[in-house]
Amino acid sequence: MTDSHGCVERCNYMSSQRRIWVIWAVGLSAYLVGVMHRTSFGVAGLAAAERFAATPAVLSGFVVLQLLVYALLQVPVGILLDRFGARRLITAGALTMAAGQLTLALATELPVAVAARVLVGTGDALTFISVLTVINAWFPARRVPLVTQLTGLLGQLGQILSALPLAALLHGQGWTAAYTSAAALGLAVAIAAAAVLRDRPAGAAAPPRPASPRQVLGGLRRSWSEPGTRLGMWTHMGTQSSGTAFALLWGVPYLVTGHGLSEAEASGLLTLFVIAAAVAGPAMGEFSARRPARRSRLVAAVIALMALAWTAVLLVPPPAPRWLLALLVVAMALGGPGSVVGFDFARTFNPGHRQGTAAGIVNTGGFSAALLLSLTIGLVLEATGGGEYTPASFRIAWTVQYALWALTLTGIFLAHRKAHRAPVPGAVPPRYRPADDPSLT
User: Fold this and answer.
1) Nearest in space to 61 (alpha carbons), one of 283, 250, 215
2) What's the confidence (pLDDT) of residue 441?
3) What backbone torsions phi and psi does residue 427 show, to the nearest 5 degrees?
4) Cα-Cα-Cα-Cα dihedral sign, residues 437, 201, 282, 300
5) CA atoms within 13 A on the CB side of 143
6) Average pLDDT for the chain
7) pLDDT digits (tens, 9 = 90+) for 222-276
8) How far is CA 367 from CA 67, 71, 103, 242, 370, in A?
9) Are 197 and 134 in contact (CB under 8 A)?
10) Among residues 30, 31, 159, 327, which one has the fewest Cβ atoms lying within 10 Å of its Cβ?
């Protein structure tokens, strides 16, 4: 009888573990396809310029508007997430992005294409922090940093989907076939999310009653006043912005026009970007879990390495050697897992009922910075290149990153000092030792 009872317990445990990983896989798929939608315009930059007769400044406006919508929605999405749950938001996000891609597939006029990217930005805004909430609900606290890193990095495989198969469809079958296929994939993910995802395990405590508007604003103020939230925001801003601007819009034109690479070679470097991030991410996640008090130093080192790599490339007269461009891409790739550390700050310095709001504030940082960076690069190219992409104008345009890095490093330093002075009631202790985590016993 005892053996039979033990067997049942083991079987139930294994079934529970499988369900956790299935739910995670569906959430990951939603994010992966969302990244494909987000980056799908980057590989089509030159084709879009021809299709819509767009200048560099107008072309940057596509991505800037998409990022603007994404950034402006992060805090509202965080509030909606705390109120309605992740399953509904992930499903709605996938459907919205699919609608945007279908609209883009059929667009022949500039205003319609702009509206399509607004839809993509809206759906994208609903996805990542919702997936993070699923992870926080289903995994033990000790495992959350690593699983979060894996999610952020495996999700970047969506960039490979846009850099390789989507680009191949674009150049082979044409614009409409490529973006219609992307829309179909988005619809499939929406169906899977609605069927499989659940906000929390069975038996878990139900969330508190929906807050009143006054309570929502109060929670938003408390999340912002928490220095750990601001530390996460500055982290996300300093690490993510360069790679996002590069991958979403300016990377392929810069590599092709600024350094003479073919479009295939440029797409290959974008693939290297994803691979390098995937290699570095688990190590950063484990470091964050075991050395939470050293996370700020890790973030500062990532920003410094990116700045060093860009300095080396910009000082070399173009075209730069291929190996140096590869090192630049690898350095920028570290910014992806570095930005995920920002969400870990939000998790460990905020109580559970404010997790969505805090994650929304953090996510606003990187995408607001990427928005401003993408727009500024487009304006500088317009001013210095006379409406044309030139190696000299690109060299000038990329230097605007240094001001952003200086600002974010200052913000990280100041927020770090304040965040580590006092614990937050109800938050996960930011300095816990692995031995103190009951999930390991």
Assistant:
1) 250
2) 27
3) -90, 165
4) negative
5) 15
6) 82
7) 877 788 889 999 999 999 889 888 877 788 889 988 898 887 888 788 888 878 8
8) 6, 6, 23, 10, 5
9) yes
10) 327
Block residue for tokens 């989907």: 161
pLDDT tens column, 14-47:
667 788 889 999 999 999 999 999 888 777 767 7
251-286 b/e with 16+ CB inside 10 Å = b?
bbbbbbbbbebebeebbbbbbbbbbbbbebbeebbe
Domains by residue range for the chain, with CATH: 7-199+215-426 (1.20.1250.20)
pLDDT-above-70 percentage for the chain: 85
Buried b (16+ CB within 10 A) or exposed e, 75-98: bebbbbbbebbbbbbbbbbbbbbb
Amino acid at 243: G
pTM value is 0.69
Extract the tokens encoding 118.
Answer: 């607004």
Q: What is the pLDDT of residues 367-414, one digit of tens each?
A: 788 888 888 888 888 888 666 778 888 999 999 999 999 999 999 999
Could you tell me which residues come within 8 angstroms of residue 391 by beta carbon, excluding any fewer than 6 positions away?
Answer: 257, 258, 259, 318, 319
pLDDT in the model for residue 352: 65
Range from 42-56, 57-71, 291-305 that averages highest in pLDDT:
291-305
